[in-house]
Amino acid sequence: MEDEVDRLVAAWRRERPDLDVEPLEVLSRVSRLARHLDRARRLAFAEHSLEPWEFDVLTSLRRAGAPYQLSPGQLLTQTLVTSGTMTNRIDRLAKRGLVERLPDPNDRRGVLVRLTVEGQHRADESLAGLLDQERAILGELSSRQRTELASLLRQLTAPFDNVPG
């Protein structure tokens, strides 16, 4: 079975036989897959009237477990955005009734961001939709193949996840 990357690699091997284009065989496929995944994610979130960034914040809170709350700093760490961006996101989610701000009982000046019942519902429903989309993308891969692929991708991404800042 030939794909677009096979054709791209063959063309580069013909045009630039002096270069080792082997990395394209893996990373061009990863890049193309990322685009398909991005489309699938947007579709799953749109079905629940969410933007991808809203899903990220809501599911960060949902994964925290009951009472589904985190400090803005903890949300920053999980979503990798700036403080100003996070403040804006929390404001917008609060306006939509998906999160609420509460005083932090351990810090007089601090606040906690808590998922509302509606926010929890949206997080749960959009996650289910996302998983349906992702299963479709994985298609006919067996459970063993999925495990092997996950392991190989982990080897590639782990060094990036463990780099400070």
From TrEMBL:
Query: One Pfam family, short name please?
Result: MarR_2
Listed transmembrane segments: none
Cite the HTH marR-type domain residue spans from the record. Answer: 23-158
Q: Which InterPro entries match?
A: HTH_MarR-typ (IPR000835), Tscrpt_reg_MarR-type_CS (IPR023187), WH-like_DNA-bd_sf (IPR036388), WH_DNA-bd_sf (IPR036390)
Domain of life, source organism: Bacteria
Enumerate the UniProt keywords alphabetically. Answer: DNA-binding, Transcription, Transcription regulation
Protein name (database record): MarR family transcriptional regulator
| Species per Swiss-Prot/TrEMBL record | Streptantibioticus parmotrematis
